[in-house]
Write a structure and sequence with these properties.
Layout (H helix, E strand, L loop, with lengths): L6 H15 L25 E6 L5 H25 L4 H13 L2 H26 L7 H17 L8 H16 L1 H10 L3 H20 L24 E3 L2 E2 L1 H18 L1 H11 L1 H6 L4 H28 L10 H12 L3 H25 L3 H23 E6 L4
Antiparallel strand pairs: 1-4, 2-3
Helix pairs in contact: 2-15, 3-14, 4-9, 4-12, 4-13, 4-14, 5-6, 5-8, 5-12, 6-12, 7-8, 9-10, 9-14, 10-12, 13-14, 13-15
């Protein structure tokens, strides 16, 4: 037995179906005999594809990088203003007091010398895609080696400073050997090994300054004060010769990377290590040489701090330099001359941060936050330098 539909409901269904089959009503009157407008066609949405740029002019890269730094500084200014510092006070501290005061400028120059060295150290390793995060550990061992020359009375007083510098170069380079071997022989990531070795070096330093090398006069955790012949001399008006040394190292690094055969090999390895190996470039030797040079430069940065600023070995002289070196190399895109400029800007940021700590009770972590924000904005700018968005498909 089949179900039957009442006649009223069947008629309503027919009318609804007929209503749905009718063309959509057009807006506006139509003249007699005119054909109704066809249904409106909507164009598809525009689609974009991410393309790798073949090249970007250097001045355009500079504009993008400068814009990212400005954006980062603007974000930092907003954060500091939210912390209770007025915009006028920020301008006075960053511009007027830091750049318009002779004493502050001298402090910036002194602070910039080890930053230049640590930035060069990071740039050398990053050039061959060896991510050396152990800059602080290599810096510590450079300072330890230089102090060992002092406490051991090695050499004559006239040659003492030269021996300290050579020992610092050797100490930093030797501390970079272990992560280099771990990567080449066992394939262990240098990011982890260099980072962990920082803690080993730091704890060994504490063992020395709390133990055998503790100053017997005051029993504080630092070595004895260096003699005048064991300190870097001043050039003028209290400015240490470390500034001149850092400038000479930066020029030498620029010549090495731009004019020497090893520098050309390093560029090949940075672009494509496998292709460089296929062309006959000794990739392993190039990487090893760059890493050892990176460690040596970091060790010399430790020598500059203990012989040019502290005049003794202290327990935390290296704090913050490792991250700053990575920041400098990243902002400078591993260019030695640009690293020198960026190092001075970071030094100015350090000096201003200390003033903010004293005058406005801003914690040092706020200064580190500013550095982190600059890293993020510059990393974002790298996207616009390397890639572009191009439309694909046709639009109606």
């Amino acid at each position: 037995m089949t179900d039957t539909v009442p006649s009223g409901q069947a008629e309503a269904c027919v009318q609804d179906r007929a209503r749905n089959d009718e063309p959509a009503a057009s807006f506006g009157p139509h003249p007699a005999g005119a054909v109704a407008d066809p249904p409106r066609r909507f164009s598809p949405a525009r689609h974009y594809a991410l393309e790798l740029r073949q090249d970007m002019a250097w001045h355009k890269q500079g504009i993008v990088l400068a814009s990212s730094i400005v954006v980062g500084l603007a974000i930092c200014a907003v954060i500091l203003m939210a912390a209770g510092i007025s915009g006028r006070d920020l301008f006075n501290e960053f511009v007027v007091e830091t750049l318009g005061n002779a004493e502050s400028i001298r402090t910036v120059l002194i602070q910039a010398a080890p930053l230049v060295m640590i930035g060069l150290a990071a740039a050398m390793a990053f050039r061959v895609r060896f991510w050396n995060l152990g800059l602080e550990g290599q810096m510590v061992w450079g300072a330890i080696a230089a102090t060992a020359v002092v406490l051991g009375d090695v050499g004559s007083s006239g040659a003492r400073l030269w021996l300290m510098g050579a020992a610092a170069l050797a100490g930093g380079a030797l501390w970079a050997v272990l992560p280099l071997v771990l990567r080449m022989r066992l394939g262990i990531s240098e990011i982890i090994s260099t980072l962990m070795l920082n803690y080993v070096a730091g704890n060994f330093l504490l063992n020395l300054v709390y133990g055998q090398w503790k100053d017997p006069k005051d029993s504080f955790p630092h070595s004895r004060v260096f003699l005048v012949t064991e300190r870097l001399p001043d050039l003028w008006n209290g400015c240490s010769s470390a500034i001149l040394l850092a400038a000479l190292f930066a020029l030498a690094a620029w010549w090495f990377l731009q004019r020497s055969r090893a520098g050309v090999y390093m560029r090949f390895v940075s672009i494509n290590a496998r292709a460089a190996h296929a062309l006959g470039v000794p990739v392993r030797n190039v990487v090893a040489g760059a890493v050892l040079l990176s460690g040596a430069l970091a060790g010399f940065a430790g020598f500059i701090v203990v012989a040019g600023q502290e005049a003794r070995l202290t327990q935390d002289f290296y704090a913050g330099y490792g991250f700053s070196g990575i920041l400098i190399a990243f902002l400078a895109r591993n260019n030695p001359i640009a690293a020198s400029v960026v190092a001075h800007l970071v030094a100015a940021l350090f000096v201003t941060g200390r003033s903010l700590q004293v005058l406005y009770q801003i914690p040092f972590s706020m200064v580190q936050l500013i550095q982190a924000i600059l890293v993020i904005t510059v990393a974002a700018s790298d996207f616009f330098i390397r890639y572009r968005l191009s439309p694909v498909g046709k639009t109606a």
